[in-house]
Each structure stands twice: as C-alpha cells, then as structure tokens.
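User: Okay, second chain of the day. Same drill as before: sequence in, structure tokens out.
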Amino acid sequence: MALFDPDNRNRSHYHRRLYAAYEVAFTLVDFLAAACFIAGSVMFFYKSLENGAIWLFVIGSVFFFMKPAIRLARELHYLALGDVEDVAKRFDP
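Assistant: Same drill. Structure tokens below.
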C-alpha cells in the first residue's frame, strides 16, 4: 500500500469508516482555524483587543499545522492496518 494513494480509502469497509472519521477531524480543524483568523482579524480593529487577536492568529496557525498532521496520521493508520485480507479478518463483518 502506497502512502497518499486515493484508493486506500476504499480497500475495505473499515478503511471507508476510518477515512470518514479522519475527514470529520480535518474539517473541524479547518473550521476552527478559519474562525480563529476571522475573529483575530476583526479584533485587530480595536487597539484594546490586539493581544487577543495575536493569540487567535497563533492558535489558528496551530490548527492549520494540524491539517497535514491529520492526513499523515490517517495514512500511517492505513499502513498499520496491514494488508486488506488482515483487515477483513479483524474488522469486516
């Protein structure tokens, strides 16, 4: 199995469920990053909120860093599962 092969998600029922779970995490992190940057941008209009805005940009940047980390974790999870036959023995009904 090759890393980042689009066919990995369809190798078994378990792979499809795993892909969906990681996509939920990826989407949640994406929304949180965007929300931090929007809130931080609005807060920069007010001098008294600048420190909070800076922190939101830092937190948003961490969320953006998490996006490729989630994708890599998913691919490593696929590799840890082993061959499709092994997955079928362990997880498929």
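The two ends are 22 Å apart (CA to CA).

User: Thanks, on to the next one.
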